[in-house]
Amino acid sequence: MYFYPSILQTYSITINTSSRTLTLFKNGQWFKSYPIAVGKPSTPTPKGTYTIVNKAVNPGGPFGVRWLGLSIPHYGIHGTNNPASIGKAVSNGCVRMYNKDIIELFNIVPIGTTVKII
What we know:
L,D-transpeptidase catalytic domain-like; 8-stranded mixed beta barrel; globular; L,D-TPase catalytic domain-containing protein; LD-transpeptidase; peptidoglycan L,D-transpeptidase activity; LD_TPept_cat_dom; glycosyltransferase activity
């Protein structure tokens, strides 16, 4: 009898709005962290626990090259056409990433991934 380890990986994301970092966990363990931009004081990134509900390639405009839509309507994690904004609190509430980083994240996480914003 052979034992086949599960090839299913479980991913989760924690977004820390204070440190402006997005941390990706794989099977509950730290996997990678990325610098991000978050919402400005007048339109803060909403704290809470959400899930990724949709994904889009080349959504256009200020959203850069990829979009990961969250279960809170009108909010997502996306690339940017303004890379100088990364590390700042400047968005309308979404989480911005460098385009190279959102491509990497987009290719790793499936729809249904938990996203915790603290």
